[in-house]
Specification:
Blueprint lengths: L4 E8 L3 H12 L4 E4 L19 H4 L1 E7 L1 E6 L5 H4 L29 H14 L3 E2 L7 H12 L5 E2 L1 E2 L28 H7 L3 E3 L2 E8 L5 E8 L7 E14 L6 H12 L15 E8 L1 H7 L21 E3 L13 E6 L5 H5 L12 H8 L4 E8 L6 E2 L9 E2 L5 E7 L4 H18 L5 E5 L7 E3 L29 E3 L14 H21 L13 H13 L1
Parallel strand pairs: 1-2, 1-11, 2-8, 3-18, 4-20, 11-21
Antiparallel strand pairs: 3-4, 5-7, 6-13, 9-10, 10-11, 12-15, 12-19, 13-14, 14-15, 16-18, 17-18
Helix pairs in contact: 1-6, 1-12, 4-12
Cofactor: FAD
Pathway: Steroid metabolism; cholesterol degradation
InterPro entries: Cholesterol_Oxidase (IPR052542), FAD/NAD-bd_sf (IPR036188), GMC_OxRdtase_N (IPR000172), GMC_OxRtase_C (IPR007867)
């Protein structure tokens, strides 16, 4: 076994929580290493196909749990490489939510107003811009027209996309080969590298242990670059500060597996998991009714038939984001493009039995260009719980890449189901009006509920009984360990969470720097946000060289 290395700060994970920490700590003068369990792909590596071994299966982690499946990023840049770059800020009422604990979930120190300057920093760094109606693709325009016809509002969403560079190829979920999507590969990560941070892909952390001097020893394995079930060498590295940002489906697993070495974990580690209340409906549009009722047509004369043209979500309906409404009855509806892979399996046929395969499903698939997928983000009940961790990684992998079975157990409560039911009814009211389409929710029969925005499995809060972290993101009872990914978010946000995860990570940085200073690290805080416009273009040249 090789000798143990050392560094000032080890960052586990390179998504929003990890990349932001790596940048600020490296820019402040600390020695920083970043371990990422997935590969490091560049723009030219992102492929437009679904073959096993292509970028699509290499950069995703799809973990099937008991009642909940989680789809997340598995690569340098984490979820930012595979997200749709929709970046709204959480509504004000979110920060006042009680959920089922009967009191405010969020720490008293954090409100929408308190988080606003940190949102601003993220918007500057990526950058985030407001999309305009003249740049909205066909699917977004169809959803907006249907909302207007039903007396509902719809709005273009803010996004981290350079629309001048975007080709509307709709492959952005598999990584953007045109660098139009402002992933972390174009801002925080290259800025961290420029300040001396080191990024190591295919390094999977297994557990942490405490050294006699109060620092931490991190144990890791090296993942095979083609078959993620194969682990090669192992090693250890000592760090004075550890920032865990492995994602809400992996961070609690690492901490649970560390308990025999670190001592007792807070009760909330691996509990209160939220799937952001997410749910999907697929509508199959009647092209003639689109032309007759909505008066829409494309330049070539077709009414729609453009499901695959665009760039993910561009239009959302936020009518139900009203703080005066009862909790668990607030949600947003977002037009979404989900590539015809998993979507073809889980999309349901209206009025058919069985509804997810057979002759009716074959006919539905034949009309796939007339689909519109609507994504619900609602208030769930934080009902997910992680069971005993697997021996390695965050799941028992049963496929060369992408697929595994994890320890998450999820049983949706009546509160969660009420939100889903109300949202489903709204989707049908909007899209089936006057015979425009037929709508069915995706099935939960195969993989349970599902989320692409896992949250809250190691959440911040003021109450030690219901939160794993204090309001500075430090793990209770384990000084020097911080969590800055989506697992720190207290609960569902009713909108896409990337902007909020990033803003919370930015907010945590001054406190993490102070903790590092207290542990003898020569580091300061005060680096400006990386310039996403210019740093990103420098990064492209650097990463391709």
């Amino acid at each position: 076994m090789t000798a143990t290395e050392s560094t000032d700060v080890l960052v586990i994970g390179s998504g929003f929580g990890g990349a932001i920490a790596a940048y600020h700590l490296a820019a402040g003068g600390a020695r920083v290493k970043v371990f990422e369990r997935g590969p490091w792909l560049k723009a030219d590596d992102f492929e437009h196909d679904f073959k096993l071994g292509a970028s699509y299966t290499r950069v995703f982690d799809f973990v099937i749990g008991d009642g909940m499946s989680v789809l997340g990023g598995n690569c340098v840049g984490g979820g930012s490489v595979v997200y749709f770059a929709t970046m709204p800020r959480a509504p004000r009422f979110v920060f006042e939510r009680h959920g089922s604990i009967g009191r405010r979930m969020w720490p008293a120190a954090i409100s929408r107003d308190a988080l606003e300057p940190w949102y601003d920093r993220v918007a500057e760094a990526l950058p985030v811009t407001q999309q305009t109606w003249d740049r909205v693709p066909y699917a977004g325009g169809l959803f907006a027209a249907a909302c207007h016809h039903a007396g509902r509002t719809a709005n273009p969403a803010p996004s981290a996309i350079d629309v001048d560079m975007c080709t509307n190829c709709n492959w952005m979920m598999a990584g953007c080969r045109f660098d139009a999507k402002r992933s972390l590969l174009l801002n925080y990560l290259p800025a961290a590298l420029a300040h001396g941070a080191e990024i190591r892909p295919l390094h999977e952390v297994q557990h942490l242990a405490r050294n006699d001097d109060g620092s931490y020893r991190v144990h890791y394995r090296v993942v095979d670059e083609e078959d993620y079930r194969i682990l090669h060498g192992e090693g250890t590295i000592d760090a004075k500060i550890v920032v865990i940002a492995a994602g809400a489906g992996a961070t609690p697993v690492i901490l649970q597996r560390s308990e025999p070495h670190l001592g007792r974990m807070p009760h909330a580690v691996g509990r209160y998991f939220s799937g952001n209340g997410e749910r999907l409906n697929t509508a199959v549009f009647d092209e003639d009714r689109v032309r007759e009722v909505l008066k829409l047509s494309r330049p070539d004369g077709r009414a729609y038939e453009a499901y695959q043209i665009g760039r993910g979500p561009t239009v959302a309906s936020w009518d139900r984001l009203d703080g005066a409404l009862p909790e668990f009855e607030r949600y947003s509806l977002e037009q979404l493009y989900f590539p015809p892979a998993l979507g073809t399996i889980l999309a349901q046929v209206p009025d058919a039995s069985p509804s997810w395969f057979g002759r009716g499903k074959k006919e539905m698939l034949r009309r796939w260009q007339s689909w519109l997928t609507i994504f619900t983000m609602s208030e769930d009940d934080n009902e997910g719980v992680f069971g005993p961790p697997p021996e390695t990684g965050n799941a028992h992998r049963f496929s060369q890449q992408m697929l595994g079975h994890g320890p998450l157990r999820y049983r949706p409560t009546a509160n969660t189901r009420r939100g889903w039911s109300l949202a489903d009814a709204d989707v049908k009211d909007i899209l089936e009006r006057d015979g425009l389409s037929r709508v069915m929710p995706w099935t939960n029969d195969l993989v349970g509920a599902y989320t692409v925005h896992p949250l809250a499995s190691c959440r911040i809060g003021d109450d030690p009984a219901t939160s794993a972290l204090d309001d500075r993101h430090e793990l209770r009872g384990h000084p020097g360990i911080f969590v800055t990914d989506g697992s720190a978010v207290p609960g569902a946000l009713t909108v896409n969470p990337a902007s909020t995860i990033a803003a919370l990570a930015e907010r945590a940085m001054p406190g993490i720097v102070r903790a590092a200073q207290d542990r003898g690290v020569a580091v300061t805080y005060g680096a400006p946000s990386p310039d996403g416009e210019t740093a990103g273009r420098r990064a492209v040249a650097h990463l391709r060289s």
